[in-house]
Design goal:
The protein is of the alpha+beta class. It is 21% helix and 37% strand. It starts with 7 loop residues before the first helix and ends in a 23-residue tail after the last helix. Mean pLDDT is 88; it is low at 186-195.
Length: 195
């Protein structure tokens, strides 16, 4: 589909997504978006890399239905995914799910990304090896799947939502927060394509 036929509101939202400022540890690029969920969609994927090691990954999808969607309570919907390796001891913490969800809501609030109708899951997976694989260390992963309706007055700024998602990726991956007053420089490694 020719991007010039996309609604102006959607084109602006995608441009805002692509202009979001992410930490240099986040390599972000455009990826194919699901085509059957909404009339218009755009997606970004990202990997969090520290000292040459990938420590987290995720994606964010922007869905747009100009006619609106009752389940979304709006015309846009963000769908996000974040996965990170965690210390196996953390996987035993009964509050990990609640804490993982708070990382998302706190990131949205910190970036001024107003939202409604949030939903999602936090999944923790731990693995131990036995038998001929007993030498391998125990491992654990945290997965956060979430969706929310971005709000704005008069218009939504999707850049704030992408930046919040980027912060969620970094927090889940164990990166320390950027100190207050320190500006985040855009990642030169991230390549964002145009729709």
């Amino acid at each position: 589909m020719d991007s010039s036929t996309y609604p102006e509101e959607f084109r602006v939202a995608v441009a805002q997504m692509q202009a979001a400022r992410l930490r240099p540890e986040v390599f972000c690029e455009e990826m194919p978006a699901p085509q059957r969920i909404a009339p218009y969609a755009s997606a970004l994927s990202a990997d969090v890399t520290v000292d040459g090691q990938d420590v987290g990954t995720g994606r964010i999808v922007l869905l747009h239905d100009p006619a609106g969607n009752d389940a979304w309570a709006g015309t846009f919907r963000c769908v996000a995914y974040a996965r990170a390796e965690i210390d196996p001891e953390m996987a035993n913490d009964p509050l990990l799910g609640e804490v993982g969800w708070s990382w998302l809501t706190e990131a949205l609030d910190a970036h001024g990304a107003a939202y409604a109708a949030p939903s999602g899951t936090v999944t923790k997976v731990s693995s131990e090896s036995f038998g001929s694989m007993a030498e391998e260390e125990a491992s654990a992963q945290l997965e956060i799947r979430a969706s929310w309706t971005p709000l704005g007055s008069p218009l939504v700024d999707l850049g704030q939502h992408v930046e919040a998602w980027g912060e969620l990726l970094c927090t889940a991956s164990g990166l320390p927060p950027v100190p207050e007053g320190v500006a985040t420089m855009p990642s030169r490694r991230g390549q964002r394509g145009r729709i």
